[in-house]
Protein 1
Amino acid sequence: MGPFFHLGLTHLNRHSLAPDGTPASHILSFHGHIYDADLAPVPDAQLELWQADANGEYFDREYAARAGAKTFTGFGRVPTNENGEFHFTTIKPGAVRSRSGGATQAPHISVTIFMRGLLRHLSTRIYFPADPHNSADPALHAIPADRRDTLIARASETEANKFEWNVVLQGESETVFFDL
Amino acid sequence: MADIPQYRRPEARSQPDYLWPTYVSSRKRAPKKPLILLPHSLSEVTGPVFGDDAVAATDSDLTTQHDGEPIGERIIVCGRVLDDSGRPVPGALIEIWQANAAGRYRHKNDQHAAPLDPNFTGCGRMITDAEGNYRLVSIKPGAYPWQNHANAWRPAHIHFSLFGAGLLSRLVTQMYFPGDPLMAHDPIYNSIRDDRARQRMVAAFDFATAIPSHALGYKFDIVLRGPDGTPMETTR
């Protein structure tokens, strides 16, 4: 989408997905970088985030009617800065139950990535470290075991509720991207 | 019985490859490992929902966002957003951005030595109506040079970003103008290998959309992925 997308898309930037009034202890903070094949940071990318609420429910028009206007929508949009870094805050999504008795999905954030040089957007996901649902998650299972770690955020050892998740576009440590 | 709507996957040649070496910026940013086929789940068939409050009335008329009128050829672009079964997509958020008539974006990183227009920002938003219709008033963007190869110029284009029913329908594309000689030389336009699919990025000149003595008209329909249904014959 070229180098000038900020012109048309910045108005919808959403760095905070947590609904108003969320206790501070429930707010998770994510940050990371996007790197190219040379591991150079990408300063002109945009990430869109989509996730379920704490109960594993996705926002839609019925949800909005039920919950009122000022509520969780599950949508975020964040650009990378001049250092190729992005950040956002959110709440932990719940596990997403299938509507037909299929496998339950582990808590995850769907990420869509756009930038100059990508003729189509990329789709990936962020998972949470040590979540008990991860071992049975169908998407993680579709990934070769040695690449699953690219989708699992790393919890900070020093700060509570702080996570790091990086994207490598190409190369040995390439992030897993999905064919939707 | 499936628990979610079923979406077809797009035909390969109708969508660009990630790695497209003639587009130099793709070389170090395109993934090289195979993408992992993801069975569709609730997480992909759902997606962001935007109400009419996401858009103000002036957002769809780029010629009235300042005190004066922008320089350039006034145009009206209208069309429908449809899914790949031919059904209209109501409530789709469309975001657009474009260069001014001189081929310059109002963006700090655009260094092209062409004038900015104090009366033109170059961004707009629309939500499709119940029949999937949208209408945009703007000025025709200029072509501009870029650094991809020697004497490289982008054909005139308007960037379109669309949110349909769910993540699977998300689309970012570009609209081109019919008859532009630069299209044949443009690696981005030519990254779509299927000729008919490529033509779907070119608006149709349309007198019925034009306003006599005021603005020229173009029709540009946009097809998003949608839940499976009976395919309708494509008309273009």
Note: The first strand of chain B starts at residue 36 and ends at 37.
Protein 2
Amino acid sequence: MLKWALGASQVALLDRAGLLRTGVARADTADAPSRLCVIYVPGGFRPQYHFWPMGDDDVEHCVPEPGGFAGEPAFFRKESLIDLGAANGNYKPLRVWRSWDPSNPANRTGFSPMMYGFQHFDLAGQMAVLHGVDQGTADHGSAFVSAMCGVASPDFRAPALHSVFANHVYGRYASTRPLPFVTVTTERGLPVAQGLPSHAAPVRVPSIEALGPQMSDNPMTNAWWDKLNNRTPSPELSIRGDALGTMLETTALEAHTLKQPGKLLGRSNAKVDSFLEGIHGSLRSVSRVLAADVVSVLQAQKGIDALTMKPSYMANYGLGAFGYTFGLANFHMTSMEPRLDMALRLLKSDLTSAVHVALPLDFDTHSGLGHGFSCAHGRAQMDIVARFLGELKATAAPGMPGKTLLDDTLVVVLSEFGRSWAYKSSTGFNLPDDHHPYTSVLFAGGGVAGNRSIGTYDRRGFGQATDIIEENGQASSRVPRSADVVSTAMRMMGLDFHEFFIPGGYGEVVGLRKT
Amino acid sequence: MRARALVTLLLLAGCEAKIVMPPPPGGEVLADGGCPPEGKNDELRQALSGACASCHSTGNKPYFASLDAFENGLVYDERWVKRGDPEGSGLVKLLEGTNPGSYPQMPPGELFSASVADGRSKVSIDDVKAWIRDLPERSAVNEGPSPGAFTVRRLRADEMVQSLMAQLGLTLEDFVSTSNPDWRNRAYVPAGGRFFIWPGDWSPGISGEYVSDSRSTERYETLGGAVVLQGRKHDASLGPAATQTLVQVSQAWCRRAIDKAGNTTVLRYVTAADTSATKSVEIRKNIAQLSLRMLGEPPTEAEISELYQDVYLPLEAQSTKVAWTAVCAALVRHPKWLSY
């Protein structure tokens, strides 16, 4: 029987990643974005209906005949494809189905404004899409893990990219961002810090309503803090009593609690010591969050601001900033707004370095209507992503003069995998609707080379080789994997190859990073 | 004799797989804290660890995490080591940079001889080949559980909820409305301000009746609880989110236990009217019993004094209930309460 866990330690891995050698690693690229926002689309999406990856002549082989879904136009032909903007270098520009009326994008008679948001907010210059990524599995759970950390497995074998980044910049923002990594919603899974220090582990902030009971020491909100919330500042210490160079405000109870894990160090093996360090770090994190009164800050922070005035092209949809309807009343999307509003509050308030938000609609349809669903809802959700990016673009980055929040944030939009592709047969289109291990990823914001469509698929939806720089610096051409997505995101955020580690190897996909 | 054997066993247990931080830069990553190698295979594991363990102590190829991992995953897997045939062994090919797989060279990006030259590997390629030539048979390997294995895990969220209710003398009636005679079989209606936590797929949830306040189930998930109906597993780590919830629940539930009429789980030898001015002995005795109740072992005098001096006394002036809430919550947040 294998006993992998026996005496196992994360320490060596962390050292390989350069994350512990000096306590915490620091980003050394001043111009790289200082925030990460991962938007996860549950269930497996069909990116070919959002951003066309292939040659125009492939459309008729891979996209069903134009029709409708729930009162909305669905599917397209090559004649309606357009570039989102001028090509950037020797790369294919982003190419989308112009489903909107160019003379009046709000027109819904025979048209759909969905995806127009990318033009409305002039986003092409700050976004790129990687196509044909091999996730290594077609199982939801393993593929979610694969998307988050780059290794397909039922359990995390490496920390999620959010955690790696939050840990990387922790030293720089320890005193100003008490919530290094926040998950707003966690449909289909929770990205975890697997082995990284507790400050890189996700804190869940599911809703503004949940904040008070969860994160406040105000007795008006939580009566059990009555006369127990008197805090005193003192130097923050590690579990071994070493000064960390920061101050921490604690109550008498918290100060006592923080002393206990250190007393148990060295009694067993390194794994137990690591466990104790995790507890100590988590307790410090809680004190920091409570002392910072993040509840008041987040409650006061306006999430949706620029979008309060609904974009003109959304005039005929009748819902809020992040909503949409199909037909007259065939479908109402209302559950998107609270979670994206919370994500915006977190980014705008400068309380956090990494945010994970899962979108509410699950694409695991397994239905004959799955393609129509994927096309119509997928494009609607991408339009909401465009609005989200537009709000970030309209917001100044806190503490960074001249930069917008979009400049200072890398937004990664992904799903755990794709869904099986439509294909032409002698009798028409077949519309299989199952899990498909190849997918695409949208990168937007800081660090991203603008308006590039990198990688592609064959007509059955299998990823094709693209240029990659391997972790050892060698150039290669192969099908990109989830590890390369994580690795490329890390590179966009200013990390060098040696500053993180993904078991199984990884590289950077050429052409996606702004250089 | 048995006692001596036990001491020896425990000493050995203390040596097992002790992994220390490397001195930057380079240097050994894995050192067994002075413990002698447990045979030839362990000798080689330790000798190679400086070059290999930084990548192979965790993840899906944690060969250097322990001797067992080394032997089971590498030494006696013919993909890597063919006993008596070093030239045909994948490990040698990897070290020589001739492996036909996706990784031709280990460590990647450099020659193994560089690791030998700078001391990360204590053995040369010839030593490795000689070891493979004389490798003992697998039957010599003990595949039974290692007496040195010490595992610790966090309490799962369901264990936390159930343990804390039992230890604090709390029941569902302390958290939810009982005004409906059939309340146990209906959606629970949590009373305000109690910080109720309940799994979404426990009864009555599984019968189609859900806890009416979604915050209750949300907190359970934040505490790291599994939700079978959503395919969510128990969180194996105890990160800031779970700790955040635990901090709140420890104070909220301890205070509830103290306020509950007739409940002596927290206040057994004293009442809320007793103060240190006249009842210091009883207060210390109560701290001792509460500590025993929560942590499962008798506290030392020093531990009692620390709780008394650092937590109880500074808060007693505010109110004895506040002081006892803090003592109780401190025990719930203790690593020994949090772990199993």
Note: Chain B has 13 helices and no strands.
Protein 3
Amino acid sequence: MPSDITRSTVQGTPVHLTTAESATTEVVRHPLYPMLVPFPSVCFVGAFFTDLAYWGTAEMMWADFSAWLLFAGVVLGCLALIAGLVDLGQRRYVVTQAPIWPHVLGNLVALGLALLNCFVHSRDAWTSVVPQGLILSALVLIVVLTSNWIGWSVLVYRRRVVEVRP
Amino acid sequence: MKRHVLRLLALAGVATFALSACDDGSKGTDPNAQIGANPTLPKQQQYLLPPMKVAKVVGWKDGEKPAVAQGLKIQAMATGLHHPRSLTVLPNGDVLVVESVAPKGEPIKRPKDLIMHWVESLATSGGETKDSNRITLLRDADGDGVPESQSVFLDHLNSPFGVALVGNDLYVADTDAIIRYPYTEGDTQITAEGTTLTPLPGGPIDHHWTKSLVASQDGTRLYVGVGSNSNITENGIEAEKNRAAIWEVDRATGRWRIYADGLRNPNGLSWEPQTGTLWAVVNERDELGPNLVPDYMTSVKDGGFYGWPYSYYGQNIDPRVKPQRPDLVARAIVPDYTLSTHVAPLGMVFYTGNALPSSYQGGAFVGEHGSWNRKIPNGYKVIFIPFSNGRPSGQPVDVVTGFLDQGGKAHGRPVGLAVDKAGALLIADDVGNTVWRVTAQ
């Protein structure tokens, strides 16, 4: 028999978690995807700024930073992707107001473009960044920020939203 | 809005992929149209992944040997060496074989370096190299091409390449210094400690590490080739200080100056016999396309600037180099004679002997180590360029081929060349671990 174990609010409305739900929360207490997804995001955002610095200074150190950030971002992005698929597969999310696919698609596009950008950044010196590398870094920055902006407004962990009782 | 963003992304993706999807273009330009003066220079290409074909090294089995031009024959003079890269013949006819491997410890500055180091290790693998970085002496007193004795002449060197003898002073160009050793004619081994004449730009990056060496004909000066520290300044311009140049070193004091620069990786420094001019073969830049930029041989002018890194073949700007130097580009000298693209010439010798057919008299042999930066291999052979009046005077002739077999596997790769006392052409084959000797049939 369900009984209240805690009280919380979603947008000011009291929320009651039930024991049935608390059983599920044991599984999702350590969410993988939200833990991993900031790493590639930060790498990609960082690569844009180190690209900007290289554009401004022609100092190879910045282009090298960009290459490492993109490389690390793609590796960690692949891990986040796997984690996201696991999370999705186990239905760890409750989808509220809007569909989830723009977020998924956005992050996939960002990962794809960043991989492409790794290859552009493997060129030597100036043309490893200017102009194609810089353009790609800017695109990835826009997509990553937009996608996560959309994502975290629609993705909510199951633990937090269960049932609303008036 | 969302749709806009997605459309933009799709466009960008398609555009970038389209850039990369072009084939490597090997078919467009005939490599033979890139030989001599006025080579065809195609449009520059930039890649997501540059075209690559690294020949797998299989070595020579017993009885296998390269093919030679008509009228010549070839035999191995020494086998089982450890990455032999250059050759010097001493006045008494002894042959010094410089066995040398790249210095260790080139820093990994970006993810690409991890991959490129691996590619380079494929290209120079084959054979044990732990006993390398030494000079082996071959003595063939009767001149039959079969040495009567072989000894370790100098050991524990630091990636040596060039050797020059002036009187009783033997100079070895290690990758980071010119070292002088006392030598007496007939020595088969030097045990004395060397004396550093002049330090040379070495590690930790030391991208092009082979220091070619030749003494002036009067013996007062040494000329040493110092290759660039990168393909095209990707290690920063400060890493290129005093590099991509030929230095002139005063033999008495060790003082030096830059004799000529803008030469990306100059090797095979030699005196043209008729005019006494300094010539070199130069490895040009990679990753602009399978037919850019042609390697070349050129006479080297005192104070001359030959383009690297800012431009190539005169005033053709390389867009990868920023900031540019229009003042230098304006006076960039067009090299004398291109040798086709990515052939990697590393050795050159002018022929003044009498043992080979007379058509070889006065011209230059060039050892082409072979390409990696194009799908269809180029080079992997020794060619001959006829000279008259101190200038190249015709198309090159293939002299020694068959280093690369039909299946694209490398049995060997030619590097340094020399002419022995009997007038035979000697070839150091670094991955084949052999010294080849070419004589008239």
Note: Strands of chain A lie at 6-10, 13-17, 93-95, 155-157.
